[in-house]
Amino acid sequence: MSTAPPTAPCSSTTTHAISEHAATTIAVTLKSLADPLRLRMLSAIASDPRGESCVCDLAELANVSQPTVSHHLKVLKDAGVLVSERRGTWVWYSIDAGARPAITALLESFAPAALAPPHDADAYHGLDDVDQALSHLASSLTSRFPQLSPDAVTGVVRESYAGLARTARITAHLVPLTERFARQRLSDLTRDRSTGVPQVLFVCVANAGRSQLAAALVNQAASGRVVARSAGSSPASAIHPNVRPLLESIDGATESEAYPKPLTDDAVRAADVVVTMGCGNVCPIIPGVRYEDWAVGDPALASAAGAAAIRDDIAQRVERLLAELV
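Above: the chain sequence. Below: its structure as tokens.
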């Protein structure tokens, strides 16, 4: 009578888990955030151009009394998320410096991911021969950029396709999108920043809202006197639905140009001005490049009216930037 071989003991994962004390502390903080009005307040404060918000401003977010607003703000303050300062009869709130990276990750990465539609594996139907299509594209682009070696062009083409494919839900149109993205990257590689019109790069997390709007508004207003591009530190698979109609109302904003694209070092190096929009310190620091940070709200999390207000805020900033560059 045979006996079953002894089974190996289960591999313990307890040593890899966070401590009970850390878990309890984090849970308390998360619990303080688990309220819709508090999340809206946090978003309003984080995106306020002044870097802070007054109780009177936050009271407009919902039809609740000011004592209710003050209660929610106190919960966030007690959790170490907010700090406050009284000036006269009003109290001003801002994000605690130590908590800002975590709050940025919550609002700029987790929130859009939580709102994204579920991934549909059946939506993937790519080309029969991607390799042949990319080789043909690389050959075509090599003739347009003779200053680069064929191997360098091929490498950019394949990296561009891989970068776009990571987030694409439908791959049927990836090669035309790759052609535009790779051509942009090759132009970045060969651009001499000392000549030509100024170039502005807008960077946000998803490249599906703010940065796209900003680039489209610059290109519309500048009429070729300034060139604007956009990219994302963690690009989404598509433009946010409530941003799409805003983009469609801007002359010259095409669907292929609005497709979310990953950030590259070459894009930063080719830019005269890099404008970050809630993406933290993700851009490489290139000597000679001017950097700005625009604290604007995320249209992905806003209502239709809120998204339009964000668009108007960006348009005013674009107008000031163009006045300096042109």
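The mean pLDDT is 82.
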